[in-house]
Task: structure prediction
Amino acid sequence: MKTFRCQKCGQALFFENVECLNCKSQLAFLPDRMTMAAIEPIQGSDGRWQIKARGRRRKAPRQYRLCRNTDHAACNFVVPAEDDNPYCVACRLTRVLPDLSKPENHQRWYRIEVAKRRLFYTLAKLGLISPEPQGGEPDGPVFEFLEDLPGAPVMTGHSEGLITINVAEADDDERVRRRVALHEPYRTLLGHFRHEIGHYYWDVLIRDGNQVEPFREVFGDESVDYGEALRRHYEAGGNPANWQLEHVSAYATSHPWEDWAETWAHYLHMVDLLETAASYNTRITLPGDDEDELEELVNPFEQKAPVFEELVEQWVPITLLVNSLNRSLGQEDAYPFALTAGALRKLRYVHDVIQANRKAQKVDQGLEQPPA
Result:
């Protein structure tokens, strides 16, 4: 996630901010512009807002309403005034919330929505979800955020367009307990969202896109019994020998669907981290380069057709830098993985699928010519 700038005073802004710490302007994220902005109420407009002017306006600005969930301090997105849906493009994807009469669930909901909005940003930047869907309708999967009840535990997962998240994953102590119990080196809320959305896009881009055979050539036959595959995986201890040779994680070995979802999540890790580093004007020395020669990082979202090899070439030293910074603060590695040639081959496949979909959308919109 890149950093933003307050157009009123130039102060650095972050994705979750609701007020500029310098000029005290109210802030919101504008999905139609994919940016943070200082906003101001329109006098006599019954709750409408506009981007705060820096000088004399040349034309009437677009008008917005605040997402209804701003009433609960659970969102900072706006809705175009002409959109009748009271919820923003991210919040309207959520169908079920936990019992908010319990104080602990409100904080859990806030943390989950923060992660979901970050996921939305990345998907929109990759052309996988519309930042301004037509007719006030949602674009993407449906989310349910549920809590364990006596005799009814909740499993985080995806099924036919429905993504369920157990709200206990928003509790740091519970998430760490599960990470240790399942022998996982990495477990975060955002990671859950990126993994589960991978299952959703397998349905959309692979199954419904008639790409099952090419998928099988890279990931294997997904028609093998899924439940039985997971049972064998956990009964065997979850960490098969030499899993690193062909997979991004040990869990990815359990079934081709999980291999795809784990690889998909790692791709979103990569492009998001590279955008963040590029927004800070990070310079790195690439492996094999002269030590005095620094190279500027590329923002993968600003490239018309990002080259996968270039992304990986910059991704590796950035992960080493991030891990080293974490260790300097006494923390564990933020990215505890080392991708091998086999794992990178699968990551390349995810990259190609996403970029092909992106190009097809531009052709459909008349922004590019179809291939000859």
